Amino acid sequence: MFTKVAPSKDSSRRLQLSSLVPWCSEGMIVCKKINVLCLLQEELKIPPTVEIGTYGAAPDPPPPLSSDPSNKLSSEDEASRSFGFGTITELQNLTESGIRHIDAEEPSKRNASYSIMASLPFPSTGAEEMVVACSFLVIPYDDYNGGAYGEGGGLEVEVRRRAVLPSLHIKFLSVMVNKVFCRCALRLVEKLRPYAINGASVNMEEKFSQLTLDVIGLSLFNYNFDSLTSDSPVIDAVYTALKEAESRSTDILPYWKAHLLRKIIPRQIKAEKAVTIIRETVEELIAKCKEIVDAEGEQINGEDYVNDSDPSILRFLLATRDEVSSVQLRDHLLSMLVAGHETTGSVLTWTLYLLSKDSSALAKAQEEVDNVLGGKFPTYDDVKELKYLTRCIHESMRLYPHPPVLIRRALVADVLPGNFKINVGQDIMISVYNIHRSPQVWDGAEDFMPERFDLEGPVPNETNTNFRFIPFSGGPRKCVGDQFALLEAIIALTIFLQNLNFELVPDQKIGMTTGATIHTTNVGFFGHYYKHFLHFLNLIA
Fold first, then answer.
1. Is residue 539 in a domain?
2. Do the Cβ atoms of 512 and 520 come closer than 8 Å?
3. N or C: more exposed end of the chain, with fewer CB within 10 A?
4. Nearest to 404 by CA among 292, 275, 519
5. What's the rounded Cα separation, in Å, for the pair 40 and 390?
6. DSSP annotation of 451
7. What is the pLDDT of residues 200-258, one digit of tens each?
8. Known binding residues for heme
């Protein structure tokens, strides 16, 4: 998302920006209508007809929401729905005919049927998905794993969570705010200042992506990618790997699993080289850190242990002295790198976009930042007072959740609420996007209303909203870094608002596409979508 900046007569301390359009990755498919969906990956068979309904077509309101797995829907005959795949040709025809890019500006004109990956659209209100999500997201590891495009087996995920979770304690998060989040965000602000003089354009989505890469590198490995100010083979490799991971989330078949194809397809060759560079870099960082820990005889002396010189998660994990191989440790960290980078960048992009379109919300957020901080840098303790800004981010994650779809694969036969019969090996897809925008679930579902979350109430999550709000999933596979990601977004946006004013350039047609996260795109002639960028004008120091 490009930013165009120019001097202004505004004498305030904030930089003045006006924005145009955030940009998106190519080839992604928007998901808004994917309801609970079983993908039979093994047999690739489908009933002869597929029912495609209308968004929000349930004649009756959903039943009272409950976390009770026995909760059933009575408003529709759920058992009549069909699931599965046809032949490869049929599958491609069905999915291609179902694909729709959605206009982010005009929700009333959105087509009711579209699909993502190799999935097929089905009628949905969003409410039934929520009941099913409430049920199967809390199912133990032994019943479901991450699916074809998700996390690995249950034991692997559980071990990874148990290894990483203790490192994300309050003291660690507090140190991250002071030593990493604030400093990286301030570096972004300084990076933007020259554009105020030259009146040049800046790709803000790119800058947010660079910001979050720098944050995750320092937080995980104490490694400074310094992507805001420089390029390197490691940075290029990281972006290549991230792009490949997102592309795989929308590929119809996992052809990359075929060893021969990985050796002859150019995209796969490039991705393999990128992964090798990343692995070697991380392994080198692990080896160096291990040498230091061993030489110093460092060992954790409390649950809230943080090393002053190197507060990274890698240092914590090595200091625990747990019996874990370098390969396991590398895989833990790489998983967090992938999960923690693009998602937060997308949250910042869409929150900025939504605030740009709502001048009163923007003014209220800036006023809160000024009143709470008085010009000083935010600390961990300040965050709890930034209630409205935090709710703006939550509302952004409601409208544009990352990821927009949750996937689980059944390891045992099961029957979900609504009489959804699940066979072993089937993938279950829950559209978080659909739940978050369902008028059966939310009042003013398409509207940006941070006030819908009580400022004096608890921070919204899957439990206190009864699975209406699941941006971080829920249950045993809930995002282990949810508090880390939320804090990172709050601090970055706070410092951004302390220093910048911005507004959207008028008459822009903004759409969106999605893979692992939701990106933005500009609508060109004849309905085509092409890359474009969020511009900011009149940026001043």
1. no
2. yes
3. C
4. 519
5. 40
6. G
7. 667 778 889 889 999 999 999 898 988 888 878 888 888 888 778 767 766 667 777 77
8. 479
Residues contacting 504, CB < 8 A, separation 6+: 18, 19, 20, 353, 356, 357
What residues are designated binding site?
479
Residue 8 located in a structural domain: yes
* CA–CA gap between residue 78 and residue 374 (Å, rounded): 55
Q: Is residue 541 part of a domain?
A: no
| CATH number of the domain within which 205 lies | 1.10.630.10
Question: What residues form DSSP beta bridges with 304?
Answer: none
Q: Which residue stretches of 249-325 are H helix? A: 259-264, 266-296, 313-319
Does residue 352 fall inside a structural domain?
yes
More confident residue, 55 or 122: 122
Question: If pLDDT is split at 50, 70 and 90, which confidence band does 431 have?
Answer: confident
Residues 160/166/172/173 CA torsion (nearest 10 deg): 70
CB neighbour list of residue 255: distance below 8 Å, 6 or more residues apart: 261, 265
Full domain range(s) for residue 475: 2-530
Asked whether the whole model's pTM tops 0.85, one would answer no
Domain count, the chain: 1
Distances (CA, A) of 539 to 101, 374, 478, 497: 32, 22, 39, 13
Contact 208, 348 (CB under 8 A): yes
